Amino acid sequence: MPKFISLFFLLFPIALLAQKDNFNKKIIKVNGDLNKDGLADYVLVSQDTLSDNAPYLLEIYFAESNGHFKRVLSSVKAIDPAFPEGRKGYYNGNAFSDITIKKGILSINNELLRGHYEHKFRYQHNNFELIGFSEVYSDGQGTMGTIDFNLSTGIRIKKTEPYGEDDFPVTKTQKKIIIRPLPKLKDFAPFKTEYF
After folding, report:
1. Dihedral over Cα of 191, 150, 56, 17: its sign
2. Per-residue model confidence as pLDDT tens digits over 134-178
3. CA 180 to CA 96: how far, in whole Å?
4. Which residues contact 112 (CB under 8 A, 6 or more apart)?
């Protein structure tokens, strides 16, 4: 019995480590003032390359006046894994591209097989809130579309137009869709609704 107890205490920590995510590859780090305090914060995206679906970890750190940084957000849902169905599974065509910080707005950018999309977050009300979504895409059959959704105002504009020699009509629709409260980055996962 004492040997079993010793073996349990020896192997239990190893089992815990084996279950822990291993975000071992730094993908991108960007700096910028996110909370309008005049200090350069940073956002880091890492990837667990050992996991079969290779998830991403998004972390946001606020700069402090003493030169240190405080982690204020950590999410594994904000960016879809590189292989949602596993490395041997179905590939959906979405791929993480990069993140940017411009004028205090954090953007998460992704590539599509034929296009790209972007989610924009602003730090307000003590949270990172989704304030914008945009997408450019092609149906692969002669039509290109764009979506621009300003969640702050509720205005969503969708356009389609032909490219190449096809002669499809140009369309433009504008709707007002109010979403309150605004989605928060800490709970956010892309395309869980029809709008973003």
Report:
1. negative
2. 999 998 888 899 999 999 999 999 999 988 766 778 899 999 999
3. 27
4. 93, 94, 137
- Can you give the length of the chain in residues? 196
Query: Domain-by-domain residue ranges, the chain?
Result: 18-187
pTM for the structure as a whole: 0.85
In SS3 terms, 90-157 reads as: CCCCCEEEEEEEECCEEEEEEEECCEEEEEEEEEECCEEEEEEEEEEEECCCCEEEEEEEECCCCEEE
- The SS3 call for residue 20 is coil
- Kindly indicate the confidence band of residue 125, based on its pLDDT and cuts at 50, 70 and 90: very high
**Burial class, 84, CB count within 10 angstroms (exposed 0-12 / middle 13-18 / buried 19+):** middle
Among 63-72, 88-97, 113-122, 184-193, the minimum mean pLDDT is found in 88-97
